[in-house]
Specification:
This protein is an alpha/beta fold. The chain contains three helices and nine strands, in the order βαβαβββαββββ. Helix content is about 20%, strand content about 30%. The structure holds xanthosine-5'-monophosphate (XMP). Xanthosine-5'-monophosphate binds next to strand 5, helix 3 and strand 8.
């Protein structure tokens, strides 16, 4: 797996340190009371697991399956909700976590749906945000790292289902993207 990586963009130690500060920011900003964390599967799984364990307060977890990349290198331009049931979020204070903000379609579509379902507040957090023009007017409230407009894998992010368990974020070699 490691041989498929052209270069490491964000290493494990830097991720850990950034998560420490992100968790403190969230802890500081959120009013007292329970939070519902909505994790977008599968990409945000690793990021969310590491971030949430740094937030010492009552929270509950919901997961949502959405698809916009369909396993390839380009966003399909359409966000599909894949679950049969949508979590109960009415009147709840939400923090929505995704792995990466790219075109913005995913975060915009899910945040809108959460509001339509009656969430009282929706905040957003991403591990990575690509520095590019978005298709939707959306930015995340909490961003781990701003990166260039490159396809990345690792730390939850995949290419065709692979590389999610790499402990860092890296750029895939062209030869591995077949
Ligand atoms: P949008 O374009 O909706 O994209 O902001 C968000 C979703 O697209 C996936 N994505 C990537 N996955 N490497 C990946 O492995 C990338 O560089 C990348 N860019 C976008 C990801 O699933 C994210 O939730």
């Amino acid at each position: 797996m490691k041989n498929d990586i052209e270069r490491i963009l964000v290493d494990e130690e830097i991720i850990e340190r950034r998560l420490d500060t992100m968790a403190k920011e969230i802890e500081r900003d959120f009013p007292a009371g329970p939070i519902v964390v909505v994790i977008l599967l599968k990409g945000a799984l690793v990021f969310a697991a590491d971030l949430l364990r740094r937030i010492p307060r009552e929270l509950s977890i919901e997961c949502l399956n959405v698809a916009s990349y369909h396993g390839g290198l380009e966003s399909s331009g359409k966000v599909d909700f894949l679950d049969r049931h949508f979590p109960e979020v009415k009147g709840k204070h939400i923090i929505l976590l995704d792995d990466i903000l790219d075109t913005g379609r995913t975060l915009a579509a899910v945040a809108q749906r959460l509001r339509e379902e009656g969430a009282s507040a929706v905040h957003t957090g991403v591990l990575l945000a690509k520095d590019k023009k978005r298709a939707e007017e959306v930015e995340a409230d909490y961003v781990g790292f701003a990166i260039g407009d490159e396809f990345v894998v690792g730390y939850g992010l995949d290419y065709k289902g692979k590389y999610r368990n790499l402990p860092y974020v890296g750029i895939l070699k062209l030869s591995a993207a077949t």
